[in-house]
Amino acid sequence: MPVTTETYQKGRTSILVWSTIGFTLMFAVWLMFGVLGIPIRDEFGLTDVQLSWITAVAVLNGAIWRLPAGLAADRFGGKRVFVAMLAVTAIPAYLVSTATSFTVLLFYAFLVGFAGNSFSVGIAWVSAWYPQNRQGFALGVFGAGNVGASVTKFIGPALIAIVPAAGLLGGFIPGGWRFVPFLYMVLLVAMAILTWAFTPHREIKPGGGRSLPSLLRPLKQSRVWRFSLYYVVVFGAYVALAAWLPKYYVDVYDMPLSQAALLTALFIFPASLLRPVGGYVSDRIGARRVMYACFTIMLIASGILMMPYGYIVLDLPDGTTNEVLPWSVGTTLFTLLVFLMGCAMGIGKAAVYKHIPEYFPHDVGAVGGLVGSLGALGGFFLPPMFAYATAWTGLPQMTFFVVFVVTAIAMIWMHITVVSILHKASPELANKFEHSHDASVADEAPFTDQHDLTQTGARS
């Protein structure tokens, strides 16, 4: 039974606020190993590949349940599912603080990664309460909770330094890096209580009463899988880099962990806080144009960062040699390029999710869950790919070669799709590359295929 307009408007702001705060906390829990990984590596004597798998398994569990979680939010209501996830995740957060070996920690890291699935639940919950012409902005605000990835970057090193390794209250509260997951356990329980108390108890259930096959039917469409690849680039790569950059700064630029964490935050903040901007711009000019711009910026930045450091040696006629065209990326240039990638990712994440409620207004949970799941799986596969590419070549810059290749594949697929749609809409212009009066007139005509194109170019 639909809610009244008055109730709808009264409740949606509180839902957006509390779901965003809760998602920020859950995201911090999900990616906490990006900073904790350094002291964990030192304590357990891990290799870089072993360390990458701790981050990867957490990301994996934060991806594989996004589709079922989104379906559950559509069927049973976003509030119930979101609050339950906050409470349940508190258990493995505590267990992480008790780990005594690499194997046990790997298992607990997998369990605590469940926090990442909160994204598809929040997306379904928020979109159910907002009209279509404001969904891009609302979902962008909620998605800004990605900034939670920087929470551990800021508080982690300080807490590790301040809280003694022996802990507090006779060891009841663990110390060192273990204090951080213990603190998150307390905050998750508190957030579950506050979210339940301060958001409307009335639920909007777009999937209520529908069969499971009906809810899953939209997943047969190829555009869902195309959107998923886009999300691998703008979100999966973001998750991977948010966890990988502290180690990159420490190993390549010989920085202390605290400074590496702060510089990583310069990547995380725009990649998170610009998401509402991406939603607003996508509402105004269309998601396709936004995606083209974001992919282009990412290709340029990663293309520069992936270039190996070195110089060309010239053998001169007199038997001497001369070194010319030296190339390396200093800390300032590196941080600037990574910052630009973060900006592109933050805006691009909102643009991807702008598509979903437009094409699938009654299936945001299922479609958003699958897109989010596959995108997050990118965050699972990419850190080990970074580690193996670096190990095979001996070049840490291969991290960004991996990002470049994935981005190029997504942009090529998107462009081929766009060109195909344009040819179907105007077949008489296919293979006509030269300027003509007729072509100019055709270019100015509005699109008419309402399933694949809009006047704003928002759909792709």
What does this structure look like?
- This protein is mostly helical.
- It has a single domain, classed as MFS general substrate transporter like domains (Growth Hormone, Chain: A, Up-down Bundle), CATH 1.20.1250.20.
- Helix content is 72%, strand content 3%.
- It contains 19 helices and 2 strands.
- A two-stranded antiparallel ribbon has the order 1-2.
- Strand 1 and strand 2 form a beta hairpin.
- The chain is globular.
- It starts with a helix and ends in a 16-residue tail after the last helix.
What labels describe this entry?
460 residues; Growth Hormone, Chain: A; two-stranded antiparallel sheet; disordered C terminus
Q: Summed up, what is this model?
A:
The chain is built from 19 helices and two strands. It has helices at 5-30, 33-44, 48-64, 66-76, 78-96, 102-112, 118-129, 132-143, 149-162, 179-198, 212-216, 222-253, 257-273, 275-285, 287-305, 331-359, 364-393, 398-425, 437-444; strands spanning 310-315, 321-327.
